[in-house]
Amino acid sequence: MDLEGTPALHRYHMPAEWEPHSQCWMGWPERPDNWRDNAVHGQHVFSKVASAISKFEPVTVCASAAQWANARSQLPQNIRVIEMSMNDSWFRDTGPTFVVNKSKSTSGILEQKVAGIDWNFNSWGGIDDGCYKDWSLDLLVARKILAIERLPRFPQSIILEGGSIHVDGEGTCLTTEECLLNKNRNPHLTKEQIEDELKAYLGIKKVIWLPRGLFGDDDTNGHIDNMCCFVKPGVVLLSWTDDESDPQYERSVEAFSVLSNATDANGRKLQIIKLHVPGPLYMTDEEAAGLIQDGEAKPRLPGTRLAASYVNFYIANGGIITPQFGDKKWDEEAIRVLSLAFPDHEVVGVEGAREIVLGGGNVHCITQQQPAFA
């Protein structure tokens, strides 16, 4: 059912990711031009992510007709596997952004209604700059998920991906100018007009704009979910490096300056926790050779710097599912920092997450939380 008007008009807002979930949605990778060796390695790591999340909350994995049996055989039985067509498996960006409406019923009991925003999508940049040339199936993913769950849908014409926004659930949104102001998204809209759309659809009062995202995150044009996220209202995690010769250093310092001088929607100064990036990591000759690059998707070349970040984690009901890249020093440091940042959550590291970053994202990018009804 489509709702007329904006979510804010209906008193919906996007909740913080640490608020209770009813389930997590994921896709199933198969594109041979994005997932090497016919996605064998990528599927293995997706299975590990889904399994880790399923220990904290229900998980639904969507797979194409050709891959349904394969996905079903690789995933634990407690994970629901349903058939769905898609162009690729980045459900943070192609799935719905869920919003909630908390109100008291006639009996005085607090109820929470759930709906979803169906953003427009153009494969992160359209025909010229996007990651692949046909995204017609991805355009239907959000609508299908909402139909399966029988949830109201807010259609939206502006192009926006879920990985480009983070909210604190109390009126503040984080994003990057590099992505949302990119000419390959909504060139007809000004910064102020985009802010107005975010306020109307996410139910927020303030947008904090970081200039740029993570170095090397060219696929998404600098999504915020690789760079910075909320831990709780007033506290953020920021991708960081101490290496002044690393191109990431300038971006991290720049973001730190913006965040240090910002206040949230409630006037709070932000506490900034630094979370060091791994590596740097680069695509190997062997990894690039495993791709079938036929011109349908953006080429992935050996020697390319991988946009690897520990900020790209998933908050489950009582769990933090975070990527591990095989960089022992920084993998262990990420577990330590996240454990301190989320003392009430169990931090679970997923080994082999390099396979996801080879495809252009990580744990947060392949997941989409659905808020719980109350």
Automatic annotation (TrEMBL):
BP GO terms, sorted: putrescine biosynthetic process
Keyword presence, Cell membrane: no
Gene3D superfamilies (UniProt xref): L-arginine/glycine Amidinotransferase, Chain A (3.75.10.10)
TM region positions: none
Signal peptide: none
Entry keywords, A to Z: Hydrolase
Alphabetical list of InterPro entries matching this protein: Agmatine_deiminase, Peptidyl-Arg-deiminase_porph
Sample GO molecular function, one term: protein-arginine deiminase activity
Protein name: Agmatine deiminase
Organism: Nyssa sinensis
